[in-house]
Amino acid sequence: MLTDFERVNFDIAKIESWPYVTALKTGGSDLSKIILTPENTKHLEAEILKFVATQKTSENLLKRRNGITKHLTKVLTNKFRGSKLSTFGSFESGLNLINGDIDLCLQFNGEKPKKVLKKIARMLNEDGMDNVKLITTAKVPIVKFIDSQSKIPVDISINNSLAVYNTELLRRYSTFDPRVKPFIISIKHWARNRGISDAAMGTFSSYAWTLIAINYLQSLDQEVLPNLLKKDGSDTVTIDGTKYDIGMHSDKELNYDSKNQRNTGELLSHFFETMAKDWPWNNGVISVGSGKILTRKEKNWVAIKPYISDAIQDSEIKRLGKFSLPVEDPFDNKHDLGRVLDVEGIFEIRDEVLRAYQLISESANWDIISEIKYPEITPNEPQLDLFDDLRNQDDDKTKRDLESLYAQLKEIEKSVSVRESERNEAIKMSKALRRNSELAKEQTGLSSELRPRRSKIDELQSKRDSSNNHYIPVHFIEEEISRVYSLLTTESLNRVEMNLEKEKQMFSWFFELQSMYEHSKLTRKYHREFLKILEQQQQSIEHIKDIRQEMIEIQSFGKFTDFDDLAMKLLKELNPLKRERRNLRREIGRLEAWLRKQTHFNNNKNSRNKGKRRKFVNNRKVDDVKSKVVSGDSFSLQDLEVLLKNGGLSSVNQPKGKSDKSKRKPKKNNHTVTPQRGKRGKSSKNQ
Question: Could you tell me the residue range of the domain that residue 461 belongs to?
Answer without folding.
Answer: 395-560
